[in-house]
Amino acid sequence: MDERRLVRVSKYLSKHLRHQPERIGITLDANGWVPVPELLAAARAHGFPISRDELADAVAGNDKQRFAIEGDRIRASQGHSVEVDLGLPEVEPPGFLFHGTVAASVPAIQADGLLPMRRQHVHLSPDRETATRVGARRGRPVILSVDSGAMHAAGHAFYRSANGVWLTAHVPPPFIRFPG
C-alpha cells in the first residue's frame, strides 16, 4: 500500500475507532473493540472500502501503534473521546514523564494543569524525543516534564497503553516542570 493510502486508512480508523463510530454505523463494545468484518462492511457501505490486507498494513505500519488487533476484532489503543474502558491495569510510572505542547497552551496549563480535553485521559510520553514529535504536530514544541513519581505517591492513577503511551486523568500544575 502506498504511503498516502496508508495515512488515509489510518486517519479513517482513528476517526471511527476513537471518536465517531456511530458515523459509519458501528458500535464499540465496552472495551473499545469492534469485529473486523463489521468495520470493513461499514467502511465499504460508507464509501471508503478497506481490504483486510490494507487494514493489516495500517495496523502494522502505524508508527505510533495506534491500533490493536486480537483475533477477529480491532480497537484503538488509546485516545478515545467516546467512553470505553481499555481494561488497563493501574501501574507505577517512572519518576518523570513528558508532554509535548505549544507555547500558546502554556498559560492555560500553568493555571489548570494538563487536562484530557475531549479525550478520556491526558497522554504522556516516556521520553523527551516522543514528546517532541507529539508537540511538533501543532507547531514549535514546548516539552513539559511531569513529576509522575510524586503524582503516583500522592495517589494519582497511571495506566500504560499497549503502545507505550502513559495515561492519567489530570496533571495538576504543581507536578509540572515548565522549561525556562
Automatic annotation (TrEMBL):
EC number, as in UniProt: 2.7.1.-
Enzyme class: transferase
Role summary: Removes the 2'-phosphate from RNA via an intermediate in which the phosphate is ADP-ribosylated by NAD followed by a presumed transesterification to release the RNA and generate ADP-ribose 1''-2''-cyclic phosphate (APPR>P). May function as an ADP-ribosylase.
Entry's family note: Belongs to the KptA/TPT1 family.
Record bears the keyword rRNA-binding: no
Coiled coil: none
One Pfam family named in its UniProt record: PTS_2-RNA
Gene Ontology molecular function: any one: NAD+ poly-ADP-ribosyltransferase activity
Entries under SUPFAM superfamilies matching the protein: ADP-ribosylation
InterPro entries: Ptrans_KptA/Tpt1, RNA_2'-PTrans_C, RNA_2'-PTrans_KptA, RNA_2'-PTrans_N
UniProt entry keywords in alphabetical sequence: NAD, Transferase
One of the protein's GO biological processes: tRNA splicing, via endonucleolytic cleavage and ligation
Protein name from the UniProt record: Probable RNA 2'-phosphotransferase
NCBIfam families: PRK00819.1-4 (NF002014)
Keyword Transferase carried by entry: yes
